[in-house]
Design brief:
Blueprint: H1 5-18, H2 23-37, H3 48-59
Helix pairs in contact: 1-2, 2-3
């Protein structure tokens, strides 16, 4: 269900940018979170645990926060 995917993207993008990440990394993160959000019914974004499970299945990573923030 794609309801709320844009809202989830925007929230994730803002969150990652606020942490000091680069725009490129923030967009990648936000896109991944939005992709995860459309795997569920309803306009609610995924929990961190749901997102980490989703991302690990796609990338083989155990945690979603694998990049070191650029200074």
């Amino acid at each position: 269900d794609e309801t709320g995917a844009g809202d989830v993207f925007s929230a994730a993008l803002g969150h990652y940018l606020e942490k000091g990440e680069s725009l490129e990394d923030a967009v990648e993160f936000a896109n991944s979170v939005a992709a995860c959000s459309v795997t569920k019914v309803g306009g609610v974004g995924p929990t961190l645990a749901e997102f980490e499970e989703f991302r690990s299945k796609l990338t083989g990573r155990d945690k979603c926060h694998t990049r070191t923030p650029r200074k």
